[in-house]
Amino acid sequence: MLDLSMDLALEIQRSIKPILGSRGASEVLYVGADGTPTKRIDDVAENAALEFLRSKDIPMIVLSEEGGRILLGDDPEYICVLDPVDGTLNATRNIPIFNTSIAFAPYKEDATLEDIEYGLVMDLYNNNVFSAEKGGGSRINGERITTSKIEEIEKSTLSLYIKPGKLKEFEELIKKTKRIRCLGSVALELCYVANGGYEGMIDLRYLLKVTDVAAGKIIVEESGGVVTDDEGKNLNNGIQRLERVKIIASSNPGIHEKILYSLRF
Fold first, then answer.
1. Which helix (H) or strand (E) holds 79?
2. What whole-number distance in Å separates Cα of residue 183 and Cα of residue 98?
3. How many whole angstroms separate alpha carbon 192 and alpha carbon 175?
4. What pTM was computed for the model?
5. Model confidence at 257: pLDDT above 90
6. Are 120 and 130 in contact (CB under 8 A)?
């Protein structure tokens, strides 16, 4: 399925290339299944993705932010959890940080994020491809990657997403952390945890959907990292609907426990 994911990512990249940087790319066309405005670039990417997947004649459920749950064929064999363009705002404002996120799980009625077996995130600007297969490790452009071994928050670089007015809740963590980043492309930032660029990525706004994190989660875990919710529990959200998630992804168990502790006290 990783080969299929790679071909799908390239098809999405080709579909949006003609409109990148154009005024029309940011035009709002309708409200998507996730309840947020769908811009032209999102619509173009998703239509290209669905057309490509239909052409493969593999029965599957596709869960995507714009269309929601879509059945392709009968008796599905897989569930594809898809965010065709993650970082839409960046893509429409000529900020070169946006990606496509693709994950596959074998079909079962009660499948969750824990059932994802393949994940791929492609940086649509510079073509870096992060991928993982359950039990097979994580890679960038085919080369194995591992997470950072730093366990001290004071030496760490963290990605942190905060709701307006909620800064005080994270004040203790921010004071301790060496560097804070927030790039507007969650799937890609999860991959930066996986390859040692970050020691952690935190988003507790309850705005993310399973489509945002499905691929990044397995990439972090297969590179040696840890992914949980804000209570330290495994993410077991269902992947046949657009469930919202809170996420803390860390490079190793030591730094993960310290992040959790800092957020609690």
1. strand 78-86
2. 9
3. 22
4. 0.96
5. yes
6. yes
